[in-house]
UniProtKB/TrEMBL annotation:
This is Urea ABC transporter ATP-binding protein. Pfam families: ABC_tran (PF00005). One of its GO terms (molecular function) is branched-chain amino acid transmembrane transporter activity. Keywords: Amino-acid transport, ATP-binding, Nucleotide-binding, Transport. SUPFAM superfamilies: P-loop containing nucleoside triphosphate hydrolases (SSF52540). GO terms for biological process: L-amino acid transport. Belongs to the ABC transporter superfamily. It comes from Mameliella alba.
Length: 232
């Protein structure tokens, strides 16, 4: 589904990512881990086209993705991005926020699928409420639901548990498991909540100062070894 080889990224003259090679497969959760500032968000920005990589190759679903492909083209190509901090539209209603996902779809596919409310029942109850009036956890659910409306092939989740109460973290974990078992979507999860990530992950990539220091399936990733690699 997604394959990166030797990806590099700069902000101005500062190099942040060095020779990143990794894959994300459909029906699997690939966890991207590491301490603060190692470059996890920057890598998701490169994959989503939010910040162009400086070099290296990216193949999505068999197609070479040019280095400067913009975010809206990648969204149309099947990349769903739930950024850190969620970025929902606070003055728009829940329904309007969900409808922004239509931008990636042909008009014939416009509509909020029943699955959205099966996965996130609270959103049905709050359809007319402004996004900014939801709790942090509800906003996170809205951000994930909005990304799913666009029917992504690759879902990028940046710290979905950050600042969220335990019962909603549990619900988000269940949603990720459900999406994985459907088998057609690749999921990349950036997560600092170690137990949440280790429980969900099928494959683990750890970064240190912008470089990959671990890239292996769960069977070859003992808990204690990974914990050591991603702890300060
Ligand atoms: N827009 C930017 N301009 C310059 N430097 C940046 C920019 N965004 C991030 N950085 C720097 O790039 C490095 C990697 O940041 P990034 O946010 O990708 O790390 P991270 O692993 O996601 O960290 P966190 O867990 O804190 O979100 C950090 O040193 C950060 O200060």
């Amino acid at each position: 589904m997604l394959s990166l080889s030797d990806l590099t990224l700069h902000y101005g003259h500062s190099q942040i990512l060095y020779d990143i090679s990794m894959e994300a497969r459909p029906g699997a959760v690939t966890c991207l881990m590491g301490t603060n500032g190692v470059g996890k968000t920057s890598l998701l920005k490169a994959i989503s086209g939010t910040h162009a990589r400086s070099g290296g190759a990216m193949v999505l679903d068999g197609a070479d993705i040019a280095r400067t492909t913009p975010a809206h083209a990648l969204a149309r190509a099947g990349v769903g991005y739930v950024p850190q901090g969620r970025d929902i539209f606070p003055l728009m209603t829940v329904k309007e926020n969900l409808e922004t996902g239509y931008a990636c779809l042909p008009k014939s596919d416009w509509g909020i699928p029943d699955e959205t409310f099966e996965l996130f029942p609270i959103l049905k109850q709050f359809l007319a409420r402004r996004g900014g009036d939801l709790s942090g956890g509800q906003q996170q659910q809205l951000a994930i639901a909005r990304a799913l409306i666009a029917q992504p092939k690759l879902l990028l989740l940046d710290e979905p548990t950050e600042g969220i109460q335990p019962n909603i973290i549990k619900q988000i974990g269940e949603v990720i498991k459900y999406l994985r078992q459907k088998g057609d979507m690749a999921i990349i999860l950036v997560e600092q909540f170690f137990d949440f990530a280790y429980d969900l992950g099928d494959h683990f990539v750890a970064l240190e100062r912008g470089r990959v220091i671990h890239n292996a399936p769960k069977a070859d990733t003992p808990r204690e070894v990974l914990l050591k690699k991603v702890s300060v």
